[in-house]
Sequence to fold (155 residues):
Amino acid sequence: MRWIVLLFWLLVCFAIAGTSASWTGNEVRGWYSTLARPSIAPPNRVFGPVWTLLYGLMAVAVWKVSIAAPSPWKSVAITLFIGQLALNFAWSLIFFRWHQIGWALVEVIVLWIGILMTTLAFARVSVIAAWLMAPYLAWVSFASVLNEEYWRLNR
Fold:
């Protein structure tokens, strides 16, 4: 049963990743390539492997919380996780699909707060789950700065 729960979370996370990637991939070759590029922007080929790893880590983290013993924080942590996953999905929509760099910056700050709250809630259920979220929080911290730079250069 534990492995079915892991499979479920992997499917959820990678369904979000796949949908977001389909929007991103189309726009990287089009609209995104026309933007002034910040000096801190990594090569485009970096994003796919990084996000694949991060979605995998997120899935394992929420799985660890899902299979943990019942606690008052467990349902809070899972609810926060779903909320931040929805915010993650929304960022790709706002930035790549709607081309709203400024609104994406506002949204990524809200996403960062959501990830932090999720990570702190995970820590109350599973320290390992919280640590599995740390690379994601770090990457979205960098992505927030990168988003700000794209907004500054392309207003």
